[in-house]
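ok trying this again, last paste got cut off
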Amino acid sequence: MTLLESLKQYTTIVADTGDIEAIRKHRPQDATTNPSLLLKAAQQPAYRELVAAALHASQAVGGDKPARMAAFMDRLAVSFGCEILKIVPGRVSTEVDATLSFDTERTIAKARQLIELYAQAGVPRERVLIKVGTTWEGVRAAERLEKDGIHVNMTLLFSFAQAVACAEAGVTLISPFVGRIYDWYVRDRGVKDIAPDEDPGVASVERIYNYYKKYDYKTQVMGASFRKAAQVERLCGCDLLTISPEILADLGARTGDLPRRLSPEAAKKIDAPKLHLDEKEYRWMHNEDAMAVEKLSDGIRRFNADARKLEAFADTLLR
């Protein structure tokens, strides 16, 4: 048995990529995309037809250039999502533009637009997760979307306050960013590496998973943004893990039997008080976590920058 096969006994595997061929190779249950991954994939010759089709459809929308570019981004994301859903048996996550991170109403409107585009392509909403940045405004948008039957994957999640707010809002899925937390602490401590058993990113997912299971929250935990296979191995038993093709290949090339590290039974035994956060309590608790404040802001800026690079790339194709 490979380590990947062993992991699949306890955890749903999700491919963290926009590379359709990589998804085809590793056959995960679900797949996730984001602006950074789409930027990388869109520049590959293999996907030029998808880009061209999205451009053509967006020009037909009309309006000014910003409106056409917004339409292009939506159609490209949905086009990649539809291709991915031809391969994976489960769901694909498609992200709302980072510029909407602090706008509840526009996030809701964009999510509904994306779901409508999927519906026009014959994809039911049950197979789509709308990715929303975990700001207070994003959580409020997700809460309303879930009540409307649109399922949400909360991304850029770094603090326990964010996780508590998502659980109380009844979102479908959260994606704590293991690797980016790890990166911050490596830099902050001035070290080259942190062992998996001491890794703050791994510990963050463990804490959230145990809290959710202890109090029977339905929100699922999907560890994300891994830097090395050892982090994945340490979270065996998490509901889902979204993993890059490189780490999937590493796990698939090694044999062994991974021990289950996380389980609902063990989580029931932890000592953790149940929290209820209003907006002021949430903002204060999140603000007390310097790493989370920095990484959330940085993540929003990075996703926005890559989305604008993708628009610029598309613009060059129109000339």
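PB: full thing came through this time. Strands lie at 12-16, 30-32, 92-95, 128-133, 152-157, 173-176, 220-223, 240-243.
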